[in-house]
Amino acid sequence: MWKTGFLFFYLLCLSVFDGKEKRVPMILLIIGTAAACAVGIYGALRGRRGLECLLGLIPGLCLLIVAWATKKAGYADGIVLAVVGAFEGFRGCMLIFSISLITLSVCCAVLLLLKRVQRNSILPYIPFLCTGYLLWKVMAL
Q1: Contact residues for 97 (Cβ-Cβ < 8 A; gap 6+)
Q2: How big is the chain by its Cα radius of gyration, in Å?
Q3: In total, how many domains does the chain have?
Q4: C-alpha torsion sign, points 24, 30, 35, 40
Q5: Average pLDDT of 18-23?
Q6: Is the pLDDT confidence value at 9 over 80?
Q7: What's the pLDDT score for residue 120?
Q8: What is the DSSP code string of 78-131?
Q9: What tens digit of pLDDT does each residue of 97-136 get?
């Protein structure tokens, strides 16, 4: 339960910064990374979640590689997705990532139809990741 509260509050704080400033403070990335490492180490010591935590990092690492190769995504987006993966595991991270991409696509389509953005506009991703996390948690109830 505490992990859900922490991760939601963390994503909400990052969403505010990403939405307003289009930047994420480095200290928040460090806090999230440290918390993800602590969860991974704790899970590995208990013998249950060590491998699942490591597998959860894969989507975030793939997004980091895409950000580095194409310069179309932010590095912070990949780091935050890796943090989410460390907390929720591979399957949960992939579902959250999928939901966030679907909500981002729908939002972009609506904004394009309303002519509020241009084709080459840049939208922050972390608010959609937060929305994906919230929707995933609501659907899991």
Answers
A1: 59, 81, 129, 132
A2: 15
A3: 1
A4: positive
A5: 89
A6: yes
A7: 84
A8: HHHHHHHHHHHHHHHHHHHHHHHHHHHHHHHHHHHHTTSS-TT----SHHHHHH
A9: 999 999 999 999 999 999 888 888 888 999 999 999 999 9
Report the alpha-carbon distance of residue 12 to residue 61 in Å, rounded. 22
**Res 48: pLDDT:** 64
Rounded Cα distance, 111 and 109, in Å = 6
Range of the domain at 122: 2-140
Integer angstrom CA distances of residue 52 from 18, 37, 44, 97, 109: 28, 13, 9, 16, 35
CA distances from 131 to 34, 52, 64, 120 (A): 23, 23, 20, 23
Distance, CA of 91 to CA of 94 (rounded, Å): 5
Q: What is the pTM of this model?
A: 0.91
